[in-house]
Amino acid sequence: MAFSANITATLNIGDDTYDISLAIPNGAPTPANPYTFTVEQTPKTGSPVTLLDLSVGDSTNYSLELTPPPAILQQTGVVETLTIKVADSSQ
User: Fold this and answer.
1) Of the N and C termini of the chain, which has fewer Cβ atoms inside 10 Å?
2) Neighbours of 57 (CB within 10 A)
3) Torsion of CA 47, 48, 52, 53, to 10 degrees
């Protein structure tokens, strides 16, 4: 039995739009055909920002990138940008 799924959703919260995407291809994930999960924010003014980008190819090939929403960073009054990246490709 082969299982795959693609789920997308668009949420409008306040003045921002959030696009959410989940892709699970047939079979086990591989570096060439990974599972992916992304969340992108499009503010009413300004450019889109990828808040979450997760890709899993297998237990030794994955990447994760996180960025807080710009509105949260603006409220700190100190932090202008912040991105966290984690990746492993041990093979």
Assistant:
1) N
2) 20
3) -100
